[in-house]
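Board notes (copied after class):
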Amino acid sequence: MTEPVKKFARRLRRKPGKNIWMMGDAGLIASFLDAGEIDEFDIHVIPVFIGNGIPLVAPAHRDVPLLLRSVRKYSEGSIRLRYGVDGKRGKL
């Protein structure tokens, strides 16, 4: 990515298609979150303690209200949590 986050995200949203799925490190996610360009988090919890993890979002002073949209439990014990950012519901 070589352009500002907001400009990049808005350019992608103008293209035909469905949702934009993003995967990246904590800094990239924090950049999109701070620019107001994340609508939803889809988080999978896997029941294994790893002792030392990787942060989901880079540290900063921010409060981001999340709205739980759905929970799905899988037979092997993992759980999928879908949260809307800042109360945005989006499409299910």
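Comment from the instructor: The CA atoms of residues 46 and 78 lie 5 Å apart. The chain has a mean pLDDT of 84.
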